[in-house]
Amino acid sequence: MQDLMDLLTETGIPFAYDHFAEGESPDPPFIMFLIPGTDNFSADGVVYLKVDVVHIELYTDEKNPETEARVETVLDAHGIFYEKSEVWIEEEKLYEVLWTFERKVPENA
Q1: Would you give per-residue pLDDT tens digits along the chain (109 residues)?
Q2: How many structural domains is the chain composed of?
Q3: How far apart are CA 89 and CA 16, in angstroms?
Q4: Does the residue 32 lie in any domain?
Q5: Domain span at residue 35?
Q6: Where residue 64 sits, what CATH number does that domain have?
Q7: What is the pTM of this model?
Q8: pLDDT score, position 17
Q9: Cα separation, 40 vs 63, whole angstroms
Q10: Residue 109 domain-assigned?
Q11: Which of 21, 17, 16 is nearest to 34 (CA)?
C-alpha cells in the first residue's frame, strides 16, 4: 500500500484510505483511495498473479479540470492505465471523480 500512498503524495492533494477520521476531513479537494477487490490470475488452480483493483476518488465542491489533471499527470507518469468516471453527490454537494485501475500486488506485500 505504501506505493499507492507515495503516488498520491505526488498529487499534493490530501488523501486517506477509505475515509478520514470523523472531524478530520479537509476542505475539498481531497482524495479517498481504496482497494475494493481483486482480479487475480490463476494457474493450476492457485493464485498465480495477485492483482488489486484500485479506486482513487477525487472530491471537489466545483468542477475542477486542473485538479483532475494533477491526478492524471501522476497516473500517466507512472504508466498506469485507468478508466475515469464522474458523479455529482447531491447530499454532500460534491463532485466525485473516480479513477479505477488494476495493479500487480508487489511480491513483498
Answers
A1: 889 999 999 999 999 999 999 888 899 999 999 999 998 998 898 888 999 999 999 999 999 999 999 999 999 999 999 999 999 999 999 999 999 999 988 776 5
A2: 1
A3: 19
A4: yes
A5: 2-104
A6: 3.30.2000.30
A7: 0.90
A8: 96
A9: 35
A10: no
A11: 17
What distance in Å separates the CA atoms of residue 42 and residue 24, rounded to the nearest whole number? 41
Angle between helices 65-77 and 2-9 (to 10 degrees): 130
Q: What is the pLDDT of residue 71?
A: 98
Nearest to 19 by CA among 103, 80, 92: 92
Query: Does residue 31 form part of some domain?
Result: yes
Flag whether 77 is in a domain: yes
How many C-beta neighbours within 10 Å does residue 38 have? 13
**Residue 42 vs residues 6, 101, 105, 106: alpha-carbon distances, Å:** 29, 19, 14, 16
Rg (CA), the chain: 15
Strands (E), 1-109: 15-17, 30-38, 41-43, 46-49, 51-60, 83-89, 94-104
